[in-house]
Amino acid sequence: MAELPPQAEAFNKPKVELHVHLDGAIRVQTILDVAKRRGIHLPATTVEEMKQKIILHEPGTLTSFLEKFEEYMHVIAGDREAIKRIAYEFVEDKAKEGVIYVEVRYSPHLLANTKVDPVPWNQKEGDVSPDEVVRLVNEGLSEGGRAFKIKARSILCCMRHMPNWSMEVLELCKKYRHDGVVAIDLAGDESLNCKAYPNHRMAYEEAVRCGIHRTVHAGEVGPATVVREAVEVLKAERVGHGYSTLEDHALYKQLLDQNMHFEMCPVSSKYTGACNSDFSKHPIIRFRQDKANYSLNTDDPLIFNSTLQLDYSTAHKYMGFTEEEFKRLNIKSAESSFLPEEEKAELLDRLHEAYELIQSTAF
Ligand SMILES: O=c1[nH]cnc2c1ncn2[C@H]1C[C@H](O)[C@@H](CO)O1
């Protein structure tokens, strides 16, 4: 595999990103600024020091990774200006990475401080509800979209350990379905399955009835049974991560045949311990060989100290990805996006043009 010159981008063309957490993609400087304004004490005063607290330096576990959010979420949650600002800055950062369409996800409840039970991050009860969080994020994303000339939509997350929030998340998806919100997700610790927590299932059943798009984190660190449950019980249209699908041959074949989309996050999968840290043995290689439908995504670039370029260069350098495959997977990502059909067609036109492909090119 040809080595890239230092600083060169593995794929310097317009990209689509479908799996990135807003609360895992905040600028460290913003956390420091907001903490200062709100008089919140942090264990660090410079970006470098704060980064050392937040980023994962070694491969760990999903649980140790999820604990990292406790370092800073209390700074942003419950603060209107901060919530809008992180959404706006997120769009700016994505535009710089060459992303032209992004679906960004978050839990409205984890950024609220009222009408949420329990109030997260040991905050005092305040007056920012999950509903207002969605409005603020929408404002930040649409102002950012206009300023930086890219399109950003959002996905609202249910959390596996908070089943009592799930119906409220679904209601927010319905309320804002024509105002920036394109789907529902289920994030958090995969060992908590839906049989034990029927509220998630009820929310997803209602999503199906209302035509709300659905993705589910499954098969990241959990077994293939979680993927099966996501697809068969929750009727997921896309799978978040899904690496362990490979353990169940029949399921893998079925999902390949169904053209199921897998939202893959190579750098993330190393640091969460989801996959072997030797990228040359990564499950994505198998998905690529089988011409599966998948995207490449950052997941939580703040915590992995990463960029989308790093995911692409990792795929290029250690997994043998070519320019042609990058084009193919971005076209697949656009096709699997949760945009309405007309907007999806426009996005596909833009990619075909940028990649100098004729419309009928079949991958
Ligand atoms: O990679 C992940 N797997 C499962 N849950 C995750 C991952 N990245 C972030 N989350 C959780 C923590 C966030 O607070 C939440 C909503 O974005 O989703």
TrEMBL record:
<dbReference type="GO" id="GO:0046872">
    <property type="term" value="F:metal ion binding"/>
</dbReference>
<dbReference type="InterPro" id="IPR006330">
    <property type="entry name" value="Ado/ade_deaminase"/>
</dbReference>
<keyword id="KW-0479">Metal-binding</keyword>
<dbReference type="InterPro" id="IPR028893">
    <property type="entry name" value="A_deaminase"/>
</dbReference>
<dbReference type="GO" id="GO:0070161">
    <property type="term" value="C:anchoring junction"/>
</dbReference>
<dbReference type="GO" id="GO:0043103">
    <property type="term" value="P:hypoxanthine salvage"/>
</dbReference>
<dbReference type="GO" id="GO:0042110">
    <property type="term" value="P:T cell activation"/>
</dbReference>
<dbReference type="GO" id="GO:0004000">
    <property type="term" value="F:adenosine deaminase activity"/>
</dbReference>
<keyword id="KW-0963">Cytoplasm</keyword>
<keyword id="KW-0378">Hydrolase</keyword>
<dbReference type="GO" id="GO:0006154">
    <property type="term" value="P:adenosine catabolic process"/>
</dbReference>
<dbReference type="GO" id="GO:0009897">
    <property type="term" value="C:external side of plasma membrane"/>
</dbReference>
<comment type="similarity">
    <text>Belongs to the metallo-dependent hydrolases superfamily. Adenosine and AMP deaminases family.</text>
</comment>
<dbReference type="GO" id="GO:0005764">
    <property type="term" value="C:lysosome"/>
</dbReference>
<keyword id="KW-0965">Cell junction</keyword>
<keyword id="KW-0458">Lysosome</keyword>
<dbReference type="GO" id="GO:0005829">
    <property type="term" value="C:cytosol"/>
</dbReference>
<keyword id="KW-0968">Cytoplasmic vesicle</keyword>
<dbReference type="GO" id="GO:0009168">
    <property type="term" value="P:purine ribonucleoside monophosphate biosynthetic process"/>
</dbReference>
<dbReference type="Pfam" id="PF00962">
    <property type="entry name" value="A_deaminase"/>
</dbReference>
<feature type="domain" description="Adenosine deaminase">
    <location>
        <begin position="14"/>
        <end position="353"/>
    </location>
</feature>
<dbReference type="InterPro" id="IPR006650">
    <property type="entry name" value="A/AMP_deam_AS"/>
</dbReference>
<dbReference type="InterPro" id="IPR032466">
    <property type="entry name" value="Metal_Hydrolase"/>
</dbReference>
<dbReference type="GO" id="GO:0060205">
    <property type="term" value="C:cytoplasmic vesicle lumen"/>
</dbReference>
<keyword id="KW-1003">Cell membrane</keyword>
<dbReference type="InterPro" id="IPR001365">
    <property type="entry name" value="A_deaminase_dom"/>
</dbReference>
<keyword id="KW-0472">Membrane</keyword>
<dbReference type="GO" id="GO:0009117">
    <property type="term" value="P:nucleotide metabolic process"/>
</dbReference>
<dbReference type="GO" id="GO:0060169">
    <property type="term" value="P:negative regulation of adenosine receptor signaling pathway"/>
</dbReference>
<keyword id="KW-0862">Zinc</keyword>
<keyword id="KW-0546">Nucleotide metabolism</keyword>
<dbReference type="GO" id="GO:0046103">
    <property type="term" value="P:inosine biosynthetic process"/>
</dbReference>
<protein>
    <recommendedName>
        <fullName>Adenosine deaminase</fullName>
        <ecNumber>3.5.4.4</ecNumber>
    </recommendedName>
</protein>
